[in-house]
Amino acid sequence: MKLLSTIGDTQVTLELQRDSSSSVSFRIDDDSGKADIREIAPLTYSVIEAGRHYDVRIYERGSGMFDVAVNGEAYPVTVTDPRRWTQAGGASDASGPRKIKASMPGKVVKLLVQEGDEVDAAQGLVIVEAMKMQNAMKSPKAGRVAVIEVSEGGSVAAGETLVVIE
């Protein structure tokens, strides 16, 4: 499986191939290797690669956007499967309302938009503090802010809807 990914501000090409139930061969740009990956809880993995151990937790934000915590340090990750792009050049699932959800439990630090605002794709909508890091929840598409379901200073649970973009 070949995926185009953005980790933080860096774009990479990620290729994965499952060798057995827990062994995965990978290539990230020009680097390659093998890892033993075992799911120890939903979206929580134990990864051993080149003799090093990593605890990995994946928090889905929707629309191919994730926060990936590796040994407690979170990284924003966007994954695009090239097979899901249309010939017109856009994502095949870009139409219709989109719910932006909290990827992990935290506190709403700041609302960056108001209901009715027009937003661009990848524009910050809400800043959520989780695991002592502030994460900007971004719009997966250009559109209008239909609903804001949280308020500044409020707590959110993982998977809770923050904003709806139409």
What would you say this structure looks like, in words?
- The protein is built from no helices and 16 strands.
- The strands form 3 sheets. It has an 8-stranded antiparallel barrel with strand order 1-2-3-4-5-6-7-8. A 4-stranded antiparallel beta sheet has the order 9-16-14-11, with no helix packed on it.
- Strand 6 and strand 7 form a beta hairpin.
- The radius of gyration is 17 Å and the shape is globular.
Structural class, from secondary structure content? Answer: mainly beta
- Give the overall shape: globular
Measured distance between first and last alpha carbons: 31 Å
Helical coverage, percent range:
under 10%
* Tally of separate helices: 0
Number of strands: 16
What is the string of SSEs from the N terminus onward? EEEEEEEEEEEEEEEE
Mean pLDDT: 84
Low-confidence runs of at least 5 consecutive residues: 85-93
How do the strands line up in the largest sheet?
A: 1-2-3-4-5-6-7-8
Largest sheet: 8 strands, antiparallel, barrel
Strand share of the residues? over 45%
Q: Using the CA coordinates, give the radius of gyration.
A: 17 Å
Care to give the gist of this entry?
The chain is mainly beta. It has no helices and 16 strands.
